[in-house]
Amino acid sequence: MKRMYVVALVLVVAVLPLFAGGGQGQPSGGAAAPGKTEIRAAWWGDTKRHELYNQIIDEFQKVNPDITVVREPTSFNDYWDKLSVQVAGGNAPDFLCMHPRFAADYIPRGVCEVLDPYIADGTLSTKGWAQSVIDAGKYEGKIYMMAMGVTFNACFINLGAFKELGVTPPGFEWSWEDLKRIGIQIRAALDRQGKKTTWMINDLTIDADFNAFRYFVRERGREQYNADGSIGFTQKDIEDWFAMFKEFRDLGIIPDAATSIEYFSNVLEDSLFGRDKVFLRYIPVNQFWLYNSTFPNKELGIVRQSGSAGNMRPGEFPEGAHFAANAKSVPARKLAAVKLINFWVNDPKSLVLFKLDQGVPGNADQVQKAVMPVLDQYQLAAVNFVNTLSKITTSSPNPPIGASEIAQEYLKAAQEVAFGAKTPAVAAKEFYDRAVAIRTNANK
Fold first, then answer.
1. What's the rounded Cα separation, in Å, for the pair 107 and 334?
2. Average pLDDT per run of 10 along the chain, which is 444 residues long?
3. Which residues are CB-neighbours of 24 under 8 A, at least 6 positions away?
4. Phi, psi of 110 (to 5 degrees)
5. Is 396 domain-assigned?
6. 162 and 69 share one domain
7. What is the pTM of this model?
8. Which of the listed residues 4, 244, 252, 356 has the most CB atoms within 10 Å of its CB?
9. 345 and 323: one domain?
10. How far is CA 103 from the centre of its chain?
């Protein structure tokens, strides 16, 4: 039987208030039957998530037989690329997944429906929700999104691989210096076995996109973006980040650039971690159950993400994806999309399936009544992690307008460094100047 390893202080048996005070639907494009409303629902994820979300929508359709949901699942990166094109073409789905990292690029453009009227008339319930969790879905005082759940970023470890190589894995608290030290040991052990195309960890400058840098900056006492939307990091911050991973790449701790790009958008089963080509991966902790169910033969553990030795504060902050409705849909489809949101985040039939897929659900009442009794050891471990970090972390300002463009510029700069086309210093200066210019132009 597979064993689980989680380094934490106390196993929480009840969710603490985190922020106190099958079927595939009908073919796309087909006309709905008389008396029925057909909506399109899009989300990101991997195979297991697609199966789960189909089950939830199937349950929704059972209690809402007048609504047919056409499902449009895709990977995380492809989701945002596709949504951008769909919005530009006026063909976005009726039911959307949204994330605070990108919300400022969509809400001001009128993409997301204001949800306050649906809450007022009872279509969308906030009973059992902490106000702070509700507020996380607000933009300029209005509610546009409902949280799927609250989570924190973590690091998953393939403990079996460490044992096989005879290397001690990192503890719950570990630093970038520890990552380098342990990575060198892993590299030596892999070389002795002739495993030249296996590494310790993914290249976070590419694989974890601009958000990984956000944690690094917060460790230094700054923010990726300030509350007023201005750039919060320095040019030296980004240079140090690129330089650190260049050193990791040169030491063989992380993959070469070509390998990182090759696996960048692969589904979980075909990822570097899934193929045992790396043994650690930074990922939201709510996915611990998903990783254990996808890889039943791996012995997995959870630790915090690595930080700077003697850092001023934790890099982690409360995170979570949201649901939204397309403001440009016709009224009947908007209403149906909001009904699906309400079912997904409030109905016990959904929540016992959804569990912790996107974090601890916002409806604390239903978490206690319906969710906690059906959680397994891996899901309880994720709840434990969330509650442990909720006591020591602080919130972070949401990215402003232009953040998506800045993230694209970041990935371009990161790849230029990874492929050796530019030094960390040159790439950092060029990226920093572009980021400042993007935010300056966004305010005009």
1. 16
2. 39 37 38 78 94 98 98 93 96 96 92 98 96 88 94 95 97 94 98 97 90 93 93 98 98 97 90 96 92 94 84 82 97 98 98 94 92 93 88 87 93 97 98 97 82
3. 54, 71
4. 80, 20
5. no
6. no
7. 0.79
8. 356
9. yes
10. 14
